[in-house]
Amino acid sequence: MANAMIMADPDNVATVLSSVTAGSRVELIEKTGGRRAPMEAGEGIPAGNKIALEAIPKGKDIIKYGVAVGYASCDIAEGTLVHVHNVRSHRIDIPDGIIDEILNQMGLKQRGNP
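RE: above sequence
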């Protein structure tokens, strides 16, 4: 069974379908049904969130559905959570206080805020 789905070929993130823990094997399936080589989760990632399929340097676009949905606000390691703490939108500026509250609600530590 797949743990994460890749929506389009150029994507550098996948959506985690069931929560994963740090060090666990993440099975990757493409929307078309193909499979990619599994990867290791670098940290716990709650279901419904994005996992980095590769190291994403600060400033590089985050690609999902083949579209740039934002950019990395800091370096993002392969296999780690891609979310408001390390991504900035191309369309909307989310204040740091709201980012902190989102992470708090998720039970995650504040990390990587610029």
